From TrEMBL, chain A:
Residues 55-96 form a coiled coil. Its EC number is 2.7.13.3. Keywords: Coiled coil, Kinase, Transferase. It comes from Azospirillum griseum. It catalyses: ATP + protein L-histidine = ADP + protein N-phospho-L-histidine. This is histidine kinase.
TrEMBL record, chain B:
This is DUF1987 domain-containing protein. InterPro entries: SiaC. Residues 6-124 form the SiaC family regulatory phosphoprotein domain.
Length: 341, 132
Protein backbone atom coordinates (compact mmCIF):
# COMPACT_ATOMS: atom_id res chain seq x y z
CA UNK A 1 0.00 0.00 0.00
CA UNK A 2 1.28 3.40 -0.91
CA UNK A 3 0.73 5.70 2.02
CA UNK A 4 1.53 9.39 1.75
CA UNK A 5 1.14 11.57 4.81
CA UNK A 6 1.02 14.68 2.66
CA UNK A 7 -1.20 13.41 -0.16
CA UNK A 8 -3.80 16.14 0.37
CA UNK A 9 -1.15 18.91 0.23
CA UNK A 10 0.34 17.43 -2.94
CA UNK A 11 -3.09 17.28 -4.55
CA UNK A 12 -3.70 20.90 -3.60
CA UNK A 13 -0.33 21.89 -5.09
CA UNK A 14 -1.14 19.97 -8.28
CA UNK A 15 -4.48 21.73 -8.51
CA UNK A 16 -2.90 25.12 -7.89
CA UNK A 17 -0.34 24.49 -10.62
CA UNK A 18 -3.12 23.71 -13.12
CA UNK A 19 -4.96 26.80 -11.92
CA UNK A 20 -1.72 28.77 -12.46
CA UNK A 21 -1.56 27.58 -16.06
CA UNK A 22 -5.16 28.61 -16.65
CA UNK A 23 -4.50 31.93 -14.92
CA UNK A 24 -1.46 32.60 -17.14
CA UNK A 25 -3.87 32.66 -20.08
CA UNK A 26 -6.87 34.30 -18.46
CA UNK A 27 -5.17 36.92 -16.27
CA UNK A 28 -1.43 37.19 -17.13
CA UNK A 29 -0.85 40.12 -14.69
CA UNK A 30 -1.72 37.90 -11.73
CA UNK A 31 0.29 34.88 -12.87
CA UNK A 32 3.62 35.87 -11.26
CA UNK A 33 2.02 36.65 -7.86
CA UNK A 34 0.04 33.45 -8.01
CA UNK A 35 3.21 31.51 -8.87
CA UNK A 36 4.85 33.01 -5.77
CA UNK A 37 1.92 31.94 -3.59
CA UNK A 38 2.18 28.39 -4.87
CA UNK A 39 5.92 28.46 -4.17
CA UNK A 40 5.30 29.63 -0.61
CA UNK A 41 2.72 26.90 -0.06
CA UNK A 42 5.12 24.33 -1.44
CA UNK A 43 7.89 25.46 0.86
CA UNK A 44 5.52 25.49 3.79
CA UNK A 45 4.60 21.88 3.02
CA UNK A 46 8.27 20.91 2.91
CA UNK A 47 8.84 22.67 6.22
CA UNK A 48 5.89 20.82 7.67
CA UNK A 49 7.48 17.53 6.61
CA UNK A 50 10.74 18.50 8.35
CA UNK A 51 8.94 19.56 11.52
CA UNK A 52 7.14 16.25 11.63
CA UNK A 53 10.49 14.51 11.34
CA UNK A 54 12.02 16.65 14.06
CA UNK A 55 9.07 15.98 16.31
CA UNK A 56 9.21 12.22 15.61
CA UNK A 57 12.91 12.24 16.40
CA UNK A 58 12.23 14.01 19.70
CA UNK A 59 9.57 11.48 20.62
CA UNK A 60 11.94 8.63 19.81
CA UNK A 61 14.65 10.21 21.96
CA UNK A 62 12.18 10.65 24.78
CA UNK A 63 11.12 7.02 24.48
CA UNK A 64 14.73 5.86 24.54
CA UNK A 65 15.47 8.08 27.53
CA UNK A 66 12.48 6.66 29.38
CA UNK A 67 13.59 3.12 28.65
CA UNK A 68 17.07 3.94 29.86
CA UNK A 69 15.58 5.47 33.00
CA UNK A 70 13.49 2.38 33.63
CA UNK A 71 16.53 0.16 33.06
CA UNK A 72 18.59 2.18 35.55
CA UNK A 73 15.76 2.13 38.05
CA UNK A 74 15.60 -1.63 37.83
CA UNK A 75 19.37 -1.86 38.15
CA UNK A 76 19.26 0.30 41.26
CA UNK A 77 16.49 -1.82 42.70
CA UNK A 78 18.42 -5.02 42.04
CA UNK A 79 21.50 -3.51 43.65
CA UNK A 80 19.43 -2.53 46.66
CA UNK A 81 18.01 -6.04 46.95
CA UNK A 82 21.54 -7.49 46.80
CA UNK A 83 22.66 -5.06 49.47
CA UNK A 84 19.80 -6.09 51.73
CA UNK A 85 20.69 -9.74 51.24
CA UNK A 86 24.32 -9.02 52.03
CA UNK A 87 23.31 -7.15 55.15
CA UNK A 88 21.10 -10.04 56.21
CA UNK A 89 24.03 -12.41 55.69
CA UNK A 90 26.29 -10.19 57.78
CA UNK A 91 23.75 -10.11 60.57
CA UNK A 92 23.53 -13.90 60.48
CA UNK A 93 27.32 -14.17 60.55
CA UNK A 94 27.46 -11.77 63.48
CA UNK A 95 24.87 -13.88 65.27
CA UNK A 96 26.97 -17.01 64.74
CA UNK A 97 30.13 -15.24 65.88
CA UNK A 98 28.45 -14.03 69.04
CA UNK A 99 27.18 -17.56 69.63
CA UNK A 100 30.73 -18.83 69.28
CA UNK A 101 31.95 -16.29 71.81
CA UNK A 102 29.15 -17.40 74.08
CA UNK A 103 30.20 -21.03 73.91
CA UNK A 104 33.78 -20.06 74.72
CA UNK A 105 32.45 -18.03 77.65
CA UNK A 106 30.42 -20.98 78.90
CA UNK A 107 33.41 -23.30 78.83
CA UNK A 108 35.56 -20.81 80.65
CA UNK A 109 32.97 -19.95 83.30
CA UNK A 110 32.00 -23.52 84.11
CA UNK A 111 35.64 -24.41 84.48
CA UNK A 112 35.87 -22.70 87.87
CA UNK A 113 33.12 -24.50 89.83
CA UNK A 114 33.86 -27.78 88.07
CA UNK A 115 37.56 -27.40 88.92
CA UNK A 116 36.73 -26.75 92.57
CA UNK A 117 34.36 -29.73 92.67
CA UNK A 118 37.02 -31.99 91.10
CA UNK A 119 39.71 -31.03 93.59
CA UNK A 120 37.26 -31.37 96.51
CA UNK A 121 36.25 -34.81 95.26
CA UNK A 122 39.86 -35.90 94.94
CA UNK A 123 40.62 -34.56 98.44
CA UNK A 124 37.65 -36.55 99.75
CA UNK A 125 38.87 -39.66 97.90
CA UNK A 126 42.33 -39.29 99.48
CA UNK A 127 40.84 -38.88 102.97
CA UNK A 128 38.59 -41.89 102.43
CA UNK A 129 41.49 -44.04 101.24
CA UNK A 130 43.51 -43.01 104.31
CA UNK A 131 40.61 -43.83 106.65
CA UNK A 132 40.17 -47.25 105.00
CA UNK A 133 43.86 -47.98 105.47
CA UNK A 134 43.65 -47.09 109.18
CA UNK A 135 40.48 -49.19 109.46
CA UNK A 136 42.15 -52.17 107.70
CA UNK A 137 45.17 -51.87 109.98
CA UNK A 138 42.86 -51.70 113.00
CA UNK A 139 44.65 -48.57 114.16
CA UNK A 140 41.79 -46.13 113.61
CA UNK A 141 41.26 -43.73 116.47
CA UNK A 142 38.22 -41.69 117.48
CA UNK A 143 40.15 -38.55 116.49
CA UNK A 144 40.91 -39.91 112.97
CA UNK A 145 37.25 -40.62 112.49
CA UNK A 146 36.11 -37.19 113.72
CA UNK A 147 38.67 -35.46 111.39
CA UNK A 148 37.43 -37.53 108.47
CA UNK A 149 33.81 -36.62 109.18
CA UNK A 150 34.71 -32.91 109.21
CA UNK A 151 36.61 -33.22 105.90
CA UNK A 152 33.81 -35.22 104.30
CA UNK A 153 31.20 -32.71 105.44
CA UNK A 154 33.21 -29.69 104.17
CA UNK A 155 34.13 -31.22 100.83
CA UNK A 156 30.63 -32.55 100.21
CA UNK A 157 29.19 -29.06 100.81
CA UNK A 158 31.77 -27.51 98.47
CA UNK A 159 31.14 -30.16 95.84
CA UNK A 160 27.43 -29.63 96.11
CA UNK A 161 27.48 -25.82 95.91
CA UNK A 162 29.96 -25.83 93.04
CA UNK A 163 28.02 -28.43 91.10
CA UNK A 164 24.88 -26.42 91.73
CA UNK A 165 26.67 -23.30 90.49
CA UNK A 166 27.77 -25.17 87.38
CA UNK A 167 24.28 -26.50 86.80
CA UNK A 168 22.87 -23.02 87.26
CA UNK A 169 25.39 -21.55 84.79
CA UNK A 170 24.57 -24.23 82.27
CA UNK A 171 20.85 -23.53 82.57
CA UNK A 172 21.44 -19.82 82.14
CA UNK A 173 23.78 -20.25 79.18
CA UNK A 174 21.48 -22.75 77.60
CA UNK A 175 18.71 -20.19 77.75
CA UNK A 176 20.89 -17.41 76.35
CA UNK A 177 22.20 -19.69 73.63
CA UNK A 178 18.76 -20.94 72.64
CA UNK A 179 17.39 -17.41 72.66
CA UNK A 180 20.29 -16.11 70.58
CA UNK A 181 20.08 -18.91 68.08
CA UNK A 182 16.33 -19.04 67.70
CA UNK A 183 15.46 -15.35 68.08
CA UNK A 184 12.28 -16.71 69.59
CA UNK A 185 9.68 -14.54 71.21
CA UNK A 186 8.52 -15.46 74.68
CA UNK A 187 7.68 -14.11 78.10
CA UNK A 188 10.74 -13.71 80.29
CA UNK A 189 12.08 -12.00 83.35
CA UNK A 190 14.20 -9.04 82.27
CA UNK A 191 16.49 -8.97 85.29
CA UNK A 192 17.24 -12.68 84.94
CA UNK A 193 18.07 -12.43 81.23
CA UNK A 194 20.34 -9.45 81.85
CA UNK A 195 22.13 -11.29 84.68
CA UNK A 196 22.57 -14.43 82.60
CA UNK A 197 24.00 -12.42 79.73
CA UNK A 198 26.41 -10.60 82.01
CA UNK A 199 27.43 -13.95 83.52
CA UNK A 200 28.25 -15.24 80.05
CA UNK A 201 30.48 -12.18 79.58
CA UNK A 202 32.31 -12.67 82.88
CA UNK A 203 35.41 -14.21 81.28
CA UNK A 204 35.88 -10.92 79.40
CA UNK A 205 34.67 -8.67 82.20
CA UNK A 206 36.53 -10.09 85.17
CA UNK A 207 40.12 -9.60 83.95
CA UNK A 208 39.34 -5.98 83.04
CA UNK A 209 38.66 -5.19 86.69
CA UNK A 210 35.65 -2.97 85.88
CA UNK A 211 32.83 -2.66 88.35
CA UNK A 212 29.49 -3.65 86.88
CA UNK A 213 26.37 -2.33 88.58
CA UNK A 214 22.95 -3.60 87.59
CA UNK A 215 19.93 -1.62 88.68
CA UNK A 216 16.89 -3.54 87.56
CA UNK A 217 13.62 -4.23 89.36
CA UNK A 218 13.42 -7.98 89.96
CA UNK A 219 9.85 -8.38 88.79
CA UNK A 220 9.84 -6.88 85.30
CA UNK A 221 8.31 -9.39 82.88
CA UNK A 222 8.65 -8.84 79.16
CA UNK A 223 6.94 -10.40 76.17
CA UNK A 224 9.65 -9.94 73.58
CA UNK A 225 12.86 -11.40 72.15
CA UNK A 226 15.29 -12.25 74.98
CA UNK A 227 17.98 -13.42 72.52
CA UNK A 228 17.94 -10.10 70.73
CA UNK A 229 18.19 -8.22 74.01
CA UNK A 230 21.06 -10.41 75.09
CA UNK A 231 22.90 -9.83 71.82
CA UNK A 232 22.41 -6.07 72.15
CA UNK A 233 23.75 -6.03 75.70
CA UNK A 234 26.71 -8.21 74.75
CA UNK A 235 27.58 -5.76 71.98
CA UNK A 236 27.38 -2.73 74.25
CA UNK A 237 29.47 -4.41 76.93
CA UNK A 238 32.09 -5.53 74.41
CA UNK A 239 32.23 -2.00 72.98
CA UNK A 240 32.78 -0.53 76.44
CA UNK A 241 35.59 -3.05 77.01
CA UNK A 242 37.15 -2.39 73.61
CA UNK A 243 36.79 1.37 73.27
CA UNK A 244 36.08 3.10 76.58
CA UNK A 245 39.23 2.37 78.60
CA UNK A 246 42.20 2.36 76.24
CA UNK A 247 44.56 3.15 79.12
CA UNK A 248 43.60 -0.07 80.92
CA UNK A 249 42.11 1.77 83.88
CA UNK A 250 39.38 -0.09 85.81
CA UNK A 251 36.12 1.70 85.11
CA UNK A 252 32.52 1.67 86.11
CA UNK A 253 29.78 0.14 83.96
CA UNK A 254 26.17 0.74 84.87
CA UNK A 255 23.18 -1.09 83.49
CA UNK A 256 19.93 0.50 84.61
CA UNK A 257 16.34 -0.38 83.82
CA UNK A 258 13.27 1.63 84.63
CA UNK A 259 9.73 1.52 83.37
CA UNK A 260 9.13 4.93 81.85
CA UNK A 261 5.47 3.99 81.90
CA UNK A 262 3.82 0.62 82.47
CA UNK A 263 4.32 -0.39 78.88
CA UNK A 264 7.73 1.04 78.07
CA UNK A 265 11.14 -0.13 79.18
CA UNK A 266 13.97 2.36 79.43
CA UNK A 267 17.28 0.54 79.50
CA UNK A 268 20.50 2.48 79.77
CA UNK A 269 24.05 1.26 79.63
CA UNK A 270 26.75 3.69 80.66
CA UNK A 271 30.51 3.68 81.07
CA UNK A 272 32.74 6.36 82.61
CA UNK A 273 35.41 5.90 79.98
CA UNK A 274 37.00 8.22 77.41
CA UNK A 275 33.75 9.05 75.58
CA UNK A 276 33.78 10.21 72.00
CA UNK A 277 33.79 13.37 69.91
CA UNK A 278 30.53 14.82 68.69
CA UNK A 279 31.50 13.95 65.09
CA UNK A 280 31.96 10.31 66.03
CA UNK A 281 28.89 10.23 68.24
CA UNK A 282 26.74 11.23 65.28
CA UNK A 283 28.13 8.39 63.18
CA UNK A 284 28.35 5.39 65.53
CA UNK A 285 25.23 3.70 64.14
CA UNK A 286 26.42 3.98 60.54
CA UNK A 287 27.44 0.66 59.02
CA UNK A 288 31.25 0.28 58.81
CA UNK A 289 31.95 3.28 61.04
CA UNK A 290 34.80 2.29 63.31
CA UNK A 291 37.76 4.00 64.91
CA UNK A 292 39.53 0.66 65.06
CA UNK A 293 39.82 -0.23 61.41
CA UNK A 294 42.72 -2.58 61.01
CA UNK A 295 42.53 -3.57 64.67
CA UNK A 296 39.67 -6.01 64.31
CA UNK A 297 36.85 -3.47 64.18
CA UNK A 298 34.30 -3.93 61.40
CA UNK A 299 32.11 -1.01 62.47
CA UNK A 300 29.02 -3.20 62.23
CA UNK A 301 28.41 -3.76 65.94
CA UNK A 302 26.35 -0.68 66.68
CA UNK A 303 24.71 -0.73 63.27
CA UNK A 304 23.40 -4.20 64.06
CA UNK A 305 22.41 -3.09 67.55
CA UNK A 306 20.47 -0.23 66.01
CA UNK A 307 18.74 -2.58 63.56
CA UNK A 308 17.88 -5.01 66.34
CA UNK A 309 16.43 -2.31 68.60
CA UNK A 310 14.39 -0.73 65.83
CA UNK A 311 13.58 -3.83 63.77
CA UNK A 312 13.06 -6.54 66.37
CA UNK A 313 12.22 -4.71 69.59
CA UNK A 314 10.31 -1.92 67.78
CA UNK A 315 12.06 0.63 69.92
CA UNK A 316 14.66 3.36 69.62
CA UNK A 317 18.25 3.86 70.68
CA UNK A 318 20.18 7.05 71.37
CA UNK A 319 23.68 7.76 72.54
CA UNK A 320 25.03 10.48 74.83
CA UNK A 321 28.72 10.99 74.99
CA UNK A 322 31.41 13.58 75.49
CA UNK A 323 35.18 13.32 75.51
CA UNK A 324 36.35 12.49 79.02
CA UNK A 325 32.95 11.90 80.61
CA UNK A 326 31.99 8.52 79.20
CA UNK A 327 29.23 7.16 77.03
CA UNK A 328 25.62 6.28 77.68
CA UNK A 329 23.35 4.30 75.36
CA UNK A 330 19.63 4.60 76.07
CA UNK A 331 17.14 2.10 74.66
CA UNK A 332 13.44 2.68 74.80
CA UNK A 333 11.19 -0.20 73.77
CA UNK A 334 7.75 -1.64 74.52
CA UNK A 335 7.43 -4.31 77.23
CA UNK A 336 5.27 -6.27 74.89
CA UNK A 337 6.66 -6.15 71.38
CA UNK A 338 3.85 -5.23 68.97
CA UNK A 339 3.00 -7.86 66.33
CA UNK A 340 4.76 -7.23 63.03
CA UNK A 341 3.18 -4.17 61.42
CA UNK B 1 28.77 45.72 13.86
CA UNK B 2 29.35 44.21 17.32
CA UNK B 3 29.43 40.51 17.56
CA UNK B 4 26.65 38.67 19.37
CA UNK B 5 27.60 36.27 22.12
CA UNK B 6 25.06 34.43 24.26
CA UNK B 7 26.44 31.76 26.58
CA UNK B 8 24.52 28.50 26.54
CA UNK B 9 22.38 27.19 29.38
CA UNK B 10 20.79 23.78 29.88
CA UNK B 11 17.87 24.75 27.63
CA UNK B 12 19.30 27.41 25.35
CA UNK B 13 22.17 27.19 22.89
CA UNK B 14 25.45 29.05 22.76
CA UNK B 15 25.19 31.74 20.13
CA UNK B 16 28.48 33.10 18.82
CA UNK B 17 27.98 35.44 15.87
CA UNK B 18 31.28 37.06 15.00
CA UNK B 19 30.00 39.56 12.48
CA UNK B 20 33.42 41.02 11.70
CA UNK B 21 34.75 37.74 10.33
CA UNK B 22 31.40 36.41 9.13
CA UNK B 23 31.68 33.36 11.31
CA UNK B 24 28.33 32.46 12.90
CA UNK B 25 27.89 29.52 15.23
CA UNK B 26 25.09 27.97 17.24
CA UNK B 27 25.84 24.99 19.48
CA UNK B 28 24.50 22.99 22.38
CA UNK B 29 20.86 22.27 23.04
CA UNK B 30 17.85 24.35 22.22
CA UNK B 31 14.46 24.07 23.83
CA UNK B 32 13.87 27.50 25.36
CA UNK B 33 10.81 28.11 27.52
CA UNK B 34 9.89 30.97 25.24
CA UNK B 35 11.29 30.92 21.69
CA UNK B 36 10.35 34.53 20.99
CA UNK B 37 12.19 35.88 24.02
CA UNK B 38 15.32 33.91 23.27
CA UNK B 39 15.50 34.09 19.48
CA UNK B 40 13.96 37.58 19.06
CA UNK B 41 17.27 39.40 19.71
CA UNK B 42 19.14 36.82 17.59
CA UNK B 43 16.92 37.53 14.60
CA UNK B 44 17.12 41.30 15.09
CA UNK B 45 20.92 41.19 15.07
CA UNK B 46 21.11 38.79 12.13
CA UNK B 47 18.63 40.79 10.06
CA UNK B 48 20.58 44.00 10.67
CA UNK B 49 23.83 42.26 9.76
CA UNK B 50 22.48 40.79 6.53
CA UNK B 51 21.05 44.19 5.56
CA UNK B 52 24.53 45.74 5.57
CA UNK B 53 26.07 46.10 2.15
CA UNK B 54 29.43 44.53 3.02
CA UNK B 55 29.90 41.26 1.24
CA UNK B 56 32.30 39.32 3.46
CA UNK B 57 31.62 35.61 3.11
CA UNK B 58 29.49 34.00 5.82
CA UNK B 59 30.06 30.63 7.42
CA UNK B 60 27.26 29.32 9.61
CA UNK B 61 28.11 26.35 11.86
CA UNK B 62 25.02 24.46 12.99
CA UNK B 63 26.23 22.50 16.01
CA UNK B 64 22.97 21.86 17.86
CA UNK B 65 22.75 18.37 19.30
CA UNK B 66 19.21 18.54 20.49
CA UNK B 67 16.51 21.00 19.50
CA UNK B 68 12.75 21.19 19.73
CA UNK B 69 10.30 21.87 16.92
CA UNK B 70 10.21 25.63 17.47
CA UNK B 71 13.99 25.78 17.25
CA UNK B 72 13.77 23.71 14.05
CA UNK B 73 11.51 26.34 12.54
CA UNK B 74 13.96 29.02 13.71
CA UNK B 75 16.75 27.20 11.84
CA UNK B 76 14.67 27.01 8.68
CA UNK B 77 13.96 30.74 8.90
CA UNK B 78 17.65 31.51 9.38
CA UNK B 79 18.55 29.28 6.43
CA UNK B 80 15.97 31.11 4.32
CA UNK B 81 17.48 34.48 5.27
CA UNK B 82 20.95 33.18 4.36
CA UNK B 83 19.60 31.79 1.07
CA UNK B 84 18.22 35.25 0.21
CA UNK B 85 21.59 36.98 0.59
CA UNK B 86 23.38 34.11 -1.17
CA UNK B 87 20.98 34.48 -4.12
CA UNK B 88 22.14 38.08 -4.62
CA UNK B 89 25.79 37.13 -4.61
CA UNK B 90 27.13 36.91 -1.06
CA UNK B 91 29.13 33.72 -0.49
CA UNK B 92 27.43 31.72 2.25
CA UNK B 93 28.23 28.28 3.56
CA UNK B 94 26.29 26.27 6.12
CA UNK B 95 27.94 23.38 7.94
CA UNK B 96 25.55 20.96 9.62
CA UNK B 97 27.35 19.00 12.34
CA UNK B 98 26.09 15.66 13.61
CA UNK B 99 27.59 13.17 15.98
CA UNK B 100 29.12 10.02 14.55
CA UNK B 101 26.40 7.53 15.31
CA UNK B 102 23.48 9.92 14.88
CA UNK B 103 22.12 8.81 11.51
CA UNK B 104 18.76 10.52 11.94
CA UNK B 105 20.47 13.86 12.58
CA UNK B 106 22.40 13.48 9.34
CA UNK B 107 19.17 12.76 7.45
CA UNK B 108 17.56 15.80 9.04
CA UNK B 109 20.48 17.86 7.76
CA UNK B 110 19.86 16.57 4.23
CA UNK B 111 16.20 17.47 4.59
CA UNK B 112 16.97 20.92 5.85
CA UNK B 113 19.28 21.61 2.89
CA UNK B 114 16.49 20.89 0.39
CA UNK B 115 15.59 24.56 -0.08
CA UNK B 116 19.17 25.83 -0.16
CA UNK B 117 20.28 26.39 -3.74
CA UNK B 118 22.76 29.26 -3.45
CA UNK B 119 24.10 28.45 -0.03
CA UNK B 120 26.93 25.90 -0.02
CA UNK B 121 25.62 23.26 2.35
CA UNK B 122 27.76 20.53 3.82
CA UNK B 123 27.46 17.86 6.48
CA UNK B 124 30.22 17.22 8.93
CA UNK B 125 30.32 14.30 11.29
CA UNK B 126 32.14 14.83 14.56
CA UNK B 127 33.15 12.38 17.29
CA UNK B 128 30.52 11.89 20.01
CA UNK B 129 31.00 14.32 22.85
CA UNK B 130 33.25 16.75 20.96
CA UNK B 131 30.67 19.52 20.63
CA UNK B 132 28.07 20.99 22.90
N1 LIG C 1 31.55 2.69 74.86
C1 LIG C 1 32.20 3.38 73.90
N2 LIG C 1 33.12 4.34 74.24
C2 LIG C 1 33.77 5.01 73.28
N3 LIG C 1 33.61 4.82 71.96
C3 LIG C 1 32.72 3.88 71.57
C4 LIG C 1 31.98 3.11 72.50
N4 LIG C 1 31.17 2.28 71.83
C5 LIG C 1 31.40 2.49 70.51
N5 LIG C 1 32.33 3.47 70.35
C6 LIG C 1 32.79 4.01 69.06
O1 LIG C 1 31.86 3.68 68.06
C7 LIG C 1 32.52 3.02 66.98
C8 LIG C 1 31.55 2.07 66.32
O2 LIG C 1 31.25 0.98 67.17
P1 LIG C 1 30.82 -0.40 66.52
O3 LIG C 1 30.48 -1.35 67.59
O4 LIG C 1 29.76 -0.12 65.49
O5 LIG C 1 32.11 -0.85 65.72
P2 LIG C 1 33.48 -1.41 66.32
O6 LIG C 1 33.30 -1.78 67.75
O7 LIG C 1 34.56 -0.43 65.99
O8 LIG C 1 33.70 -2.70 65.44
P3 LIG C 1 32.97 -4.12 65.67
O9 LIG C 1 31.87 -3.91 66.65
O10 LIG C 1 32.48 -4.50 64.32
O11 LIG C 1 34.06 -5.00 66.14
C9 LIG C 1 33.73 2.39 67.59
O12 LIG C 1 34.75 2.18 66.65
C10 LIG C 1 34.12 3.42 68.65
O13 LIG C 1 34.88 4.46 68.08
MG1 LIG D 1 31.72 -3.00 68.42
Amino acid sequence: MNFNLFAAEEQAIEKARKLGEALAVAAPDCAADFEELVEAFQRSTREQRRLVRVSDRLQAQLGAANQELERRRQEAETALAHLREAQEAIIQAEKLASLGALVAGVAHEINTPVGIAVSCASHLADATRELRRLSDDGTISRGDFARYLATAGDTATLILTNCQRAAQLITGFKQVAVDRASAERRRFNLSKTLQETLASLQPKLRPSGHTVTVLCPADVELDSFPGVLSQILANLVMNALTHAFPDGRAGRLTLAVELSDVNMVRLSFADDGVGMSEDNRLRVFEPFFTTRRGHGGTGLGLHIVHNLVVGALKGSITVDSAIGTGTRFVLLFPRQTPERD
Amino acid sequence: MDSLNIPGTGRTPTVAFDFATGHLRMSGESYPDDVATFFGPVFTALRAYLAESVLIPIQFDMELLYFNSSSAKVLMNIFQMLESVARVGRPVSVIWCYEDSDESMRELGEDFSEDLHHVAFSLRNVPVGSIG
